[in-house]
Design a protein that fits this description.
globular, 6-stranded mixed sheet, 6 strands, alpha+beta, Nuclear Transport Factor 2, Chain: A
């Protein structure tokens, strides 16, 4: 049982790594593959909850914003099926530190939330 729990966490870490790699290059196909059909993505700072279709449609705007950027992330904890990540979005003209959560089931992201925790990545 312990082995399967460790294996699941490792798989979740791999999936989250794929998420940030796809996000960095605005890879709509990979992002779509990583998201469950009924996923809800909550953007706390904007007061928005997006469906999968809405999120993928928003990638057009994101693609311009992420050009020349770097995204660094580290997993803070995994608890109760939810993985919490600290991510630094280092854009050419500014950076922001985010706390993001991912609920994962059957190798798909079923829910995600994102909230800014600092206006720079100094504490990353």
């Amino acid at each position: 049982m312990l082995f399967s729990a460790i294996s699941a966490r490792a798989d979740d870490g791999t999936l989250i790594g794929r998420w940030y790699a796809a996000l960095l290059v605005a890879d709509r196909t990979e992002l779509s593959d990583l998201l469950a059909g009924d996923v809800r993505i909550k953007l706390d700072d904007l007061g928005v909850v997006q469906t999968k279709q809405e999120f993928i449609a928003s990638i057009d705007d994101w693609e311009g914003a992420v050009a020349g950027a770097e995204i660094r992330h580290r997993i803070e904890k995994t608890e109760g099926g939810v993985t919490t990540v600290i991510a630094c979005y280092d854009f050419p003209n500014n950076d922001v530190l985010m706390q993001e959560t991912f609920a994962i089931a059957d190798n798909r992201i079923t829910a995600s939330s994102q909230a800014a925790i600092a206006e720079n990545c100094d504490s990353y």
